[in-house]
Amino acid sequence: VLVLERRDTVGGAAATEEVFPGFRVDTGAHRTGGLSYRIVNDLRLAHHGLELIDADPTVFVPVVGGTPLTLWCDPRKTADAIRELSSADADAWIPFTELIGRAADFLEAAWTTTPPDVTGNDIRDLIASAKLGAKLRRLGKKDMVEVMRILPMSIYEFLGDWFESDPVRGALAASAVTGLCQGPMAGGTVYTLLHHHVGAGAGVIRPTRRVRGGIGRLSDALVADCEASGSEIRTGTAVERIVVEGGHAVGVVVDRGEIRAERVVSSVDPRRTFFDLMEPSEMEPEFARKMSNIRYKGVCAKVHLALSGLPDFTCQPGVGDHLNGVISISPSLEYVERAFDAAKYGQTSRQPYLEVSIPSRTDPGIAPDGKHLMSIVLQYAPYTLREGTWDDAARAKLSALAVATLAEYAPNLSSLVEASHVMTPLDLEQQFGLSEGNIYHGEMTLDQLLFMRPVPGASRYRTPIPGLYQCGAGTHPGGGVTGVPGFNAAREILRD
Question: Are 340 and 381 members of one domain?
Answer without folding.
Answer: yes
